[in-house]
Amino acid sequence: MRKHVVLITGAAGEMGQALVARLAAEGQSLLALDVNPLPEEMRARAQVSMSGDILDERLLSRLVTEFEIPLVYHLAAVLSTRAEYSPEAAHHVNVDGTLALLRLAAEQGSWLGHPVTFVFPSSIAAYGLPDLQTKARAGAVKEHEWNVPTTMYGCNKLYCEHLGHYYARYYRQLAQGPTETHVDFRSIRFPGLISAFTLPTGGTSDYAPEMLHQAAQGRPYACFVREDTRIPFMAMPDAVDALVRLQQAPRESLTADVYNITSFSPTAGELRDRCVRAFPGAQVTFEPDLKRQAIVDSWPADLDDSRARRDWGFRPAFDEARAFDDYLVPNIRARYQA
Ligand code: SER
Questions:
Q1: Residue 153 Cα: closest atom of ligand 1
Q2: How many CB atoms lie within 10 A of CB 179?
Q3: Listed residue (202, 211, 188) closest to 309, CA to CA
Q4: Is 194 within 8 Å of 323 (Cβ atoms)?
Q5: How far apart are CA 297 and CA 199, in angstroms?
Q6: Is the CB of residue 121 less than 8 Å from the CB of residue 190?
Q7: Quick check: 285 and 222 in contact, CB under 8 A?
Q8: What pLDDT, on a 0 to 100 scale, did the predictor assign at position 178?
Q9: For residue 30, how far is its CA from the centre of ligand 1 (angstroms)?
Q10: Cβ < 6 Å from ligand 1: which residues?
């Protein structure tokens, strides 16, 4: 008998670590996979921990011989800044890696006789606003608007949403007999995420968590975007909760495959003010990197998440004040005082 597990790729990443902690606390059997070694406490939380590359076909075939996988959280990705240093390599991980996982899910679904749920984090990077005037006019963008990303990461995420849609509805559509559904694809376009316990690697919304964690350590921080830069953010517990909620939503209540969610949209200057209030003496300066600035300027200032609120009851627990006062500041303070 094969063991029954929930597969989490990118398990050692920011979102992966938070999701593993959440699902392990609920008693779920987890297969945590990451290209980087998994931290010790994660190994204790997952039934099985593996270091390996999602592009390694032999590794993926071994997984399906050993495990029954009714649910996949495919979180592994190369984020937006890092992807620009090696766009083709990023495409390989972000697109070919997702394709390999979708194929694995389709095969599993066919074996199990019911669709495998495939949860996929997409991003605000899937949007591309051409200039600041348009960004100001656009306000809270809806899922179908401005789908013209300017980064490799954004192109990859947008395309993978389409791949998921294809696997869920049209995979092998010319095969004999009725087209069967083996994958139940569900995706969230996340805003920038801020965790109290981890830092991102290689993203372009990283200025927010970097500023806060540096301030808490009494270190100066030179923010790489202008003070008036505005994009949406969310506290990590709300992001993880959203993944789980969307996974658990009854299929019939979902009217789409892809959902915006958001919580608050501060400017970088407003973030600085919060850091200074929480950590008096924090030294934050603004030294825009024009290239990274252009990426953030192409992302919306706000997202319309009414579809997620209506279909599966999305509602963030942390607005800006609660995120800082109840989650980020106390936990970050404790972390660096320890
Ligand atoms: N936080 C991500 C990044 O900055 C966007 O999804 O790349």
A1: 7
A2: 11
A3: 188
A4: yes
A5: 22
A6: yes
A7: yes
A8: 80
A9: 25
A10: 79-80, 123-125, 153, 190, 192, 203-205
Whole-angstrom Cα distance, residue 224 to residue 209?
Answer: 12
Q: How far is the CA of 302 from the centre of ligand 1 (A)?
A: 15
The span from the CA of 275 to the CA of 270, in Å, is 9
Both structure tokens of 127: 């949007």
- Write the Ramachandran bin of 218: left for phi over 0, alpha for psi from -120 to 50, otherwise beta: left
Residue 116, strand partner residues = 183
Q: Which of 73, 127, 153, 259 is catalytic?
A: 153
3 Cα to the center of ligand 1, angstroms:
34
Q: What is the DSSP string of 13-81?
A: SHHHHHHHHHHHHTT--EEEEESSPPPHHHHHHSSEEEE--TT-HHHHHHHHHHEEEEEEEE-----HH
Q: Which domains does the chain have, with CATH numbers?
A: 77-337 (3.40.50.720)
How far apart CA 299 and CA 157 sit, in angstroms, is 14
User: Following DSSP, what letter does each residue of 245-288 receive, concatenated?
Assistant: HHHHS-GGG---SEEE---B--BHHHHHHHHHHHSTT--EEE--
Measured from the Cα of 205, ligand 1's closest atom is: 4
Segment-wise mean pLDDT, segments of 10 residues, the chain, 338 residues: 93 97 97 94 92 96 94 98 98 98 96 96 98 98 98 98 97 88 97 96 97 97 98 98 98 98 98 97 97 98 98 98 98 90
CA of residue 192 to ligand 1 center, whole Å: 6
Query: In the numeric block, which tokens belong to residue 276?
Result: 């200074």
Residues paired with residue 194 on neighbouring β-strands, in sequence order: 235
51: which residues sit within 8 A by CB, 6+ positions away?
Answer: 33, 34, 35, 36, 37, 38
- The confidence score (pLDDT) of residue 1 equals 76
Q: Is the distance from CB of 71 to CB of 117 less than 8 angstroms?
A: yes
153 is catalytic: yes
